[in-house]
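S., here's the first fold you wanted:
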Amino acid sequence: MIHFDKVSKIYSDKTVALDNITFKIDPGEFISIVGHSGAGKTTLTKMLMAEEKPTKGKVFLESVNIHALPRKHINEYRRRIGVVFQDFRLLSGKTVFENIAYAMEVAGREDKDVQSDVPYVLKLVDLEKKMWNYPHELSGGEKQRVAIARAIVNQPDIIIADEPTGNLDPINTYDIVQILKKINDLGTIIILTTHNKGVVDSIKRRVITLDRGKIVRDDPQGNYVL
């Protein structure tokens, strides 16, 4: 379970990014975080990644205050989270297989795990036939599916999908949403940040709306209202 407990973030220029927010995310939830640019979505996800610290309040994963973790344990904690970005962030000089294998190697996984797990996650995102292609040989939707495979290959508890469909057409957007829902059905928490009302409406899961750092709506039915 994730718990933001009375969390505020005020930057050095006095910008209030988050203003006394409290909410919980239960195991297995699919939650969308929505709001206009500057609403606080990025700060919220950076806090969960332990890349930003609260000015006030605490953020817990299960019973652990993540911002009280010793520095030597931060990387271990971050391995529990997979991240999917809008701009894919694939390594251009590596094949699809090698891009995903690299994430496993960084995490210290064994070669036998690489050989079994990379094909498995590529099958999950329907890209096993593109295993030896390079990123420049893929469409935008295919690149994002590789990015998702890379994010899930180390079996994280949480996936943060940061505007994952922002650069995609409607057909590829639909495909990416379906893959995220499939991953969620396997028990992984999905935290999706998006501006796309159509995406949120199609998921029909819980939606938290941020405005100027405050939670102005927490809708369990998945309605996107700004």
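And the second, which I think is the more interesting of the pair:
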Amino acid sequence: MDSLRLLKVQDLEVAVRIWHPDAPRTVIAWHGLARHGGDFNALARKLGPQWRVIAPDTPGRGLSSWSPVPDQHYLYDHYMTIAVAVLNHFNLDSVPWVGTSMGGLLGMRLASDTEHAGRVERLMLNDVGPALNPDALTLMGNYFAQPYRFNQLSELENELRQNYATFGIESEKTWAKMARDSARRLPDGGWSFHYDPRIAEQFIHDTPRDNWADWQAIHCPLMLLRGANSSLLDRQTAEQMQAMQPAMLSLEAEGCGHAPMLDRTSQVEALRQFIEG
């Protein structure tokens, strides 16, 4: 990243990573459940200096605060509050939104909201949709709820490579950077991941919602990138999304599962064409 902005939202500090801060055009990029805004580094560099990429760390992840009350803060309603605060802080009336997994569902809520829909100029969903495979969701919830500890940083990197093998990362340099950016030192000298394990309580506390109603209510241009081997977003769901939103641009990322890293030139160029309208 080229710049870091720290915002206060309801007593939590939200870290916002920025690339090309003086660029003439802006895109919001929001990460998945247990990731952080740093995942968009390759995307930002490939988009180039014409695009300011703003990528917040959701509370409980990365450089943002951990919540003392997860049942109140690790919820989509609160993420909506943060999203609007970020848009207001940067004076963004309407902006393209790129959302990976959780960040895509957040973008869907914003784009379908009667008060804030106009804030999303166009919406790109990275391997996420209104219906997700329940078995995959259960595996994710169980995995990220565990308090991991590693004696060595190399052990953390090995675990990271196994868990995120479906991201389709091809570069050793990217894996090494991802490990460094995903690690935090523990008081006993060991290592753990950057996120608060209690973020997984979102699956317990969040209110069930009709995501298909949200999907139908969206009127901005849409793009879906589905990992060809995705365990989370079934091809049938992608087809139903297309049927309900016929103008949606739909692509598959070969060799990727959940979720494509948006670091391949083919993915970035398709995304560039979409956000440039």
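Why I say that: The chain has a mean pLDDT of 97. The chain has one domain: 3-133+210-275.

Talk tomorrow,
H.
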